[in-house]
Automatic annotation (TrEMBL):
Protein name (database record): Ubiquinone biosynthesis protein UbiA
Compartments, record wording: Membrane
Keywords: Membrane, Transmembrane, Transmembrane helix
GO molecular function: transferase activity, transferring alkyl or aryl (other than methyl) groups
GO cellular component labels: membrane
Domain of life: Bacteria
Transmembrane residue ranges: 12-34, 79-106, 136-154, 205-224, 230-250, 257-276
Length: 277
C-alpha cells in the first residue's frame, strides 16, 4: 500500500507529459535517423535525446499553464485535477531539460546545439509565444530543425534536405493548429490568444488541413525519380486523414481527433522519407 502514492504520481506524470505526441515525435525522429543511415545505436541515442526534450516540453506546458488549467477545470490535466502538484511537474520538467542538454550534446556539438535550440523554441511557446500571433513560429522552427539533428549526428554530417526541413516545419504548424482546435474557447477565457484564436475555428481548420496536405505532397513529389505508385497511395492516405480531421473539427469541435489525424499524416510523411532514405 505504501507504494501506491508513488505509482499514482508516476501515472500522473505520464499523463502530464502529453504522452501520445511525445512518443510520436520520438518515434519519428528515431525512424528518420535510421532511414538516413544512422546505425541502430545512434538512432537510439537520437531517440533518447528527443524523448528527454519532448518530456521537458510537455511537463513545462502543464507547469506554466497550471493556473489557467485550474481556472477552466481541464479534466485532461493532472495538475488541474489535483492528481499531482505544480512543484512536482516543474521539477520533472527541469530534470528532463537537463537530461535533454546532456543527451543532445553526446550526439555531437552541431546536432546538440540544433536540438537544444529546437527544444528551447518549444519552451518559448509554452512560456510566452502561445499567446501571440507568432504562436506558429516555435512549431515551424522546432519541427523544421528536428531532421537535421539526425543528419548532423551521422559520420558524414550534413543539414537535412531543404524539402524535408520545409515539410517538417509545415507538419509542425499544421499539428499546432489542429491541436488548439478543441481548446479555443478555454484558451481565450484565460487570456491565451494565439494565431488560431485570431483566425477562428473555420479558418484554423482549413489552414491545418492545407498545411498537412502540402507537407505530405512535398515529401511524396520530391521523391528521387519522382513519385511512385506507393508514394501516391501514401499521399491519398494523408489526404483521407486530413479530410477526416476537417470533418470531425466541424461537427465535434471538442474532440481531439484532428490532432491525432495530424500525427497520422506526419507518420505517413516520415514513412515515405524512411522508405526513400
Amino acid at each position: 500500500m505504501g507504494d501506491m502514492p508513488v505509482v499514482r504520481t508516476a501515472a500522473a506524470l505520464l499523463r502530464a507529459s502529453h504522452l501520445p505526441p511525445t512518443l510520436a515525435v520520438t518515434a519519428f525522429a528515431a525512424a528518420y535517423a535510421w532511414g538516413v543511415g544512422a546505425p541502430a545505436g545512434l538512432a537510439a541515442r537520437v531517440a533518447l535525446a528527443v524523448l528527454a526534450g519532448q518530456l521537458s516540453v510537455g511537463w513545462s506546458n502543464d507547469w506554466i499553464d497550471a493556473a489557467r488549467d485550474r481556472a477552466v477545470a481541464r479534466p485532461d490535466k493532472p495538475v488541474a485535477t489535483g492528481a499531482i502538484t505544480t512543484g512536482t511537474v516543474r521539477a520533472a520538467a527541469l530534470v528532463a531539460a537537463l537530461a535533454c542538454v546532456v543527451l543532445s550534446f553526446l550526439l555531437g556539438t552541431a546536432p546538440g546545439a540544433v536540438h537544444v535550440v529546437a527544444v528551447a523554441s518549444a519552451w518559448a511557446y509554452n512560456a510566452w509565444l502561445k499567446s501571440t500571433p507568432w504562436s506558429w513560429a516555435p512549431y515551424a522552427l522546432s519541427f523544421g530543425l528536428l531532421p537535421s539533428v539526425a543528419t548532423l549526428a551521422l559520420d558524414d554530417p550534413c543539414v537535412a534536405p531543404a524539402t524535408t526541413t520545409l515539410a517538417a516545419a509545415l507538419l509542425g504548424v499544421g499539428a499546432h493548429l489542429a491541436n488548439v482546435l478543441p481548446d479555443l474557447e478555454d484558451d481565450a477565457a484565460t487570456g491565451v490568444v494565439g494565431l488560431p484564436h485570431r483566425l477562428g475555428r473555420r479558418r484554423t481548420t482549413v489552414a491545418a488541413v492545407a498545411l498537412l496536405l502540402t507537407a505530405a505532397a512535398l515529401v511524396v513529389l520530391s521523391m528521387p525519380g519522382g513519385p511512385t505508385p506507393a508514394g501516391l497511395v501514401a499521399l491519398g492516405a494523408a489526404a483521407g486523414l486530413a479530410a477526416s480531421a476537417a470533418w470531425v473539427a466541424a461537427r465535434r469541435p471538442e474532440r481531439r481527433y484532428p490532432f491525432l489525424a495530424a500525427i497520422g499524416v506526419a507518420a505517413v510523411a516520415v514513412g515515405v522519407l524512411v522508405a526513400t532514405g
